Amino acid sequence: MVSTEYMSNYIDSAFRADLLRDPATGLDFLHFSIVPRTASFDTLESRGEHFCNFQLDVSLRQGSSVVYQYSKDFPVYFPFKEAGRIRANGISIEDRFPVIEGKYRLVILLQNSAGKEFTLAEQDIDVPALHGRPRLSGTAVGYGFREFGPDAVLPYALGGRKLLMDPSGTVSPRESLSLLLSCSGVTEA
Q1: Residue 19's pLDDT is what?
Q2: Are strands 117-127 and 157-158 parallel, antiparallel or unpaired?
Q3: Is pLDDT of 171 > 90?
Q4: Cβ–Cβ < 8 Å for 184, 21
Q5: Counting CB atoms within 10 angstroms of each CB, which of 73, 82, 102, 123 has the fewest?
Q6: Helix (H, G, I), strand (E, B) or coil at 85
Q7: How far, in Å, CA of 41 to CA of 52, rounded?
Q8: What's the whole-model pTM score?
């Protein structure tokens, strides 16, 4: 639900969702990234920081039934000197959650309490059976990887390496293309 005080402040966004098999568990996870085209922020003069608070509401639906749903807050604080970079590049909100075989409609509502803004993203998701023919999935393209260690549980990360990406697919000519994908149903033979 979007509160009436937010209704006139819709913000367009870039969005991407990818299905990746976790090699450690063998389970499929739906990874997503959403970046509002603009974001308002408030000021904490005493700390020399700007801030905004994003509330993320995610639901996975089959027809009119909600089969999975959760909410999460993403408070963001940054120093005054970063405001120009944040305005130019936006703030990426990313997450992941496990999914099982089926056809779904993913609905993501992201609300920013600073400025009373919201954005919405929707996408059909088809999660194939865990066993079956070999397949590649989650072919996400980014501009590099960051090491976080083997125990890190992050969106767009496998084996302790997180893909750095922009959901709109933007890559600078100075950056190298990086690819994250998973394969399943492949045997040693």
Answers
A1: 92
A2: unpaired
A3: no
A4: yes
A5: 73
A6: helix
A7: 5
A8: 0.88
Phi and psi at residue 40, to the nearest 5°: -80, 155
pLDDT tens profile 75-107: 999 999 998 888 888 899 999 999 999 999 999
pLDDT-derived band at 184 (thresholds 50, 70, 90) equals confident
The SS3 of residue 84 is: helix
Closest to 122 in 3D by CA, of 60, 31, 39, 36: 60
**Calpha distance 67→60 (Å, rounded):** 6
Per the listing, tokens 């590099």 go with 144
- Could you tell me which residue, 83 or 6, shows the higher pLDDT? 83
Q: How far apart are CA 147 and CA 163, in angstroms?
A: 9
Strand partners for 44: 49
Q: How far is CA 152 from CA 10, 56, 99, 149, in A?
A: 34, 21, 19, 6
Q: How far apart are CA 110 and CA 120, in angstroms?
A: 6
- Separation of alpha carbons 117 and 10, rounded Å: 6
Q: Residue 76: helix, strand or coil by DSSP? A: strand
Dist CA 21 CA 98 (whole Å): 9
In terms of phi and psi (left: phi > 0; alpha: psi -120 to 50; beta: otherwise), the region of 138 is left
Nearest to 44 by CA among 20, 77, 16, 71: 77
H or E element: which one contains 20?
strand 13-21
